Amino acid sequence: MAASLSSAGTVRVLSTLARSSLLCSSSGSRGLHVTAACCKNRAARTRVGKGEKPLTYEQAFHPHHIGHCKGWLSQHTSNLKGEEGAAERTMEDVFIRKFMFGTFHGSLANEIVLKRRGNMLIVCALMIQKMSPLKFYFLIGYTETLLSHFYKCPVKLEVQTLQDKAVYKYI
Amino acid sequence: MAAPTVLRRQLFPLARILSGLSHLKPRSLTVCSGHRRCAVSRFPPPLTPSASFHTATPLSSSAITVTEEPDVLFQKVLVLVKSHDRAVLDSYEFFATTAAQELGITVGKVFEPQKDIERVTLLKSVHIFKNHRVQYEMRTHFRCIELSHITGSTAKVYLEYVQRNLPEGVAMEVTKTAMEKVPDHILKPMWEDLPADDKPSQ
């Protein structure tokens, strides 16, 4: 699939893909072909409001800006030509984003950036200083241990904290 | 004998790597987009074995082995790196070529094969509207570094250094062309050794 959609877009694409794969009949003279719906006009775009909605830099730019003014949220080699494992990496990414969103509830300032270097999985997150540092350290250690047991690879969390969300513009 | 040269060449580059090359790390470009208040330029971790790659044994225990067998000689070692981001490949090429020059490896040519774009055309809507479609593409940029006339141990050291500092999202393919000694039995043409025979004629 495309380079990197935000979590909501990815979940929607995956659910439509799952539905379409159930509908596809494999053999027989009359096959049903269903392609994935991509909702290109609405993916990862915030609807314009009256000027009261704050947007971070990530949310302010649309997916066609990836590679121009946006970077990639999850960096791995499986989408390159001749490389395999794209589906597994995507599933891992979706799970990790949901897991982080749930563990650090309400204190994520921006989307999670996932980097895979060799065997290691590095999760870079920006947090809001909502809890005391002690609780943050516990949650970071808990996340690292659990994820490294799930995925059988070293998982490192790189966390930076802010006072509040970095707003790029208001829509 | 290849053994003393093996020993010398493995010690020398290792010493230079550990002492003088810390300024040569590629600067991984900020692809955590637009987090303006965070530290924008992140340097990859220093060349300690546990930081960049998870290894079971520390670097010091990978002992310098002195073997009797001669070292493999490579005519050409082709390092092809692929990525989605051209700027990352530019920076990595600078790092790899400078590292090769510092280690005294002759760099043949450094070129950029044409990028490959994989396009997918899908229906925009869930139901009907066949005339309205959406296209996605995945671009792969390449960069090829050719090293010529390199020994096996130098190649091992260089490739290990360069691979430990591969940025995330960059894949590498290494093609090695080895040189072998021509077997003795085909060095001279056979007809020179034959005694002066009469030609078998009918």
UniProtKB/TrEMBL annotation, chain A:
Subcellular location: Mitochondrion
Any single GO BP term: translation
InterPro entries per UniProt: Ribosomal_uS3m
Record Pfam families: MRP-S24
UniProt KW keywords: Mitochondrion, Ribonucleoprotein, Ribosomal protein, Transit peptide
Superkingdom of the source species: Eukaryota
Chief location bin: mitochondrion
Any one GO cellular component localisation term in the record: ribosome
Family, per entry: Belongs to the universal ribosomal protein uS3 family.
Protein name per Swiss-Prot or TrEMBL: 28S ribosomal protein S24, mitochondrial isoform X2
Organism phylogeny: Eukaryota, Metazoa, Chordata, Craniata, Vertebrata
Automatic annotation (TrEMBL), chain B:
Name of the protein this chain belongs to: Small ribosomal subunit protein uS10m
Superkingdom of origin organism: Eukaryota
A Gene Ontology cellular-component term: mitochondrial small ribosomal subunit
InterPro entries to which the protein is assigned, alphabetical: Ribosomal_uS10 (IPR001848), Ribosomal_uS10_dom (IPR027486), Ribosomal_uS10_dom_sf (IPR036838), Ribosomal_uS10m (IPR040055)
Keywords of this entry: Mitochondrion, Ribonucleoprotein, Ribosomal protein
Residue ranges of every copy of the Small ribosomal subunit protein uS10 domain listed in the record: 78-175
Cell compartments where the protein resides: Mitochondrion
GO annotation (BP), single: translation
Similarity comment: Belongs to the universal ribosomal protein uS10 family.
Single GO molecular function: structural constituent of ribosome
Keyword Ribonucleoprotein (UniProt): yes
UniProt organism field: Stegastes partitus
Transmembrane segments: none
